[in-house]
From TrEMBL:
SUPFAM superfamilies associated with the record: TPR-like (SSF48452)
Keyword Membrane listed: yes
Family that this chain belongs to: Belongs to the Ycf3 family.
Function text: Seems to be required for the assembly of the photosystem I complex.
GO annotation terms (biological process): photosynthesis
TPR repeats: 35-68, 72-105, 72-105, 120-153
Protein's recorded name: Photosystem I assembly protein Ycf3
HAMAP family, per the entry: Ycf3
Length: 169
């Protein structure tokens, strides 16, 4: 049974009903509808921590989805799962792929910055100050772009840029 048919909470059920109604009335192909159903099921599984199931649905959606913008969100969500699992290199790969298709995806830019910042902190702990500077500078570049696209978001990143004097570099 598809995940969309076993949602237990009111919000998921409401979203499913609305999404199904929209799919029936919007002029979309069967392929696009199937891609969206897999994407929706992937989001539902991901929100419940069922990452293996979510990945299966996202990969199925990617096999069907041809629109670059829509693919960017699928790729972004796959990156989120890999980041949650501590697979930062794989997460970066998916975030970069998402940005190739949608350069305005501020949340992907933010997540890339978070990974570089984390790696910078690890370098500091290992006594690699030159490496940490490079990683922190890279994080700053991605945060600046994310903030440019979404100026009211990422307040902590804005504060970090100010306190580390990376705001204008």
């Amino acid at each position: 049974m598809p995940r969309s048919q076993r949602n237990d909470n009111f919000i998921d059920k409401t979203f499913t009903v609305v999404a199904d109604a929209l799919l029936r009335i919007l002029p979309t192909s069967q392929r696009e509808k199937q891609a969206f159903m897999h994407y929706r099921d992937g989001m539902s599984a991901q929100s419940e921590g069922e990452y293996a199931e979510a990945l299966q649905n996202y990969y199925a959606a990617m096999r069907l989805e041809i629109d670059a913008y829509d693919r960017s969100y699928i790729l972004y969500n796959v990156g989120l799962i890999h980041a949650s699992n501590g697979e930062h290199g794989r997460a970066l790969d998916y975030y970069y792929q998402a940005l190739e298709r949608n350069p305005s995806l501020a949340q992907a830019l933010n997540n890339i910055a978070v990974i570089y910042h984390y790696r910078g902190e690890q370098a500091v702990e290992s006594g690699l100050s030159e490496v940490s500077k490079i990683l922190f500078d890279r994080a700053a570049d991605y945060w600046k772009e994310a903030i440019r696209l979404a100026p009211t978001n990422y307040i902590e990143a804005q504060n970090w840029l100010k306190t580390t004097n990376r705001e204008e570099r």
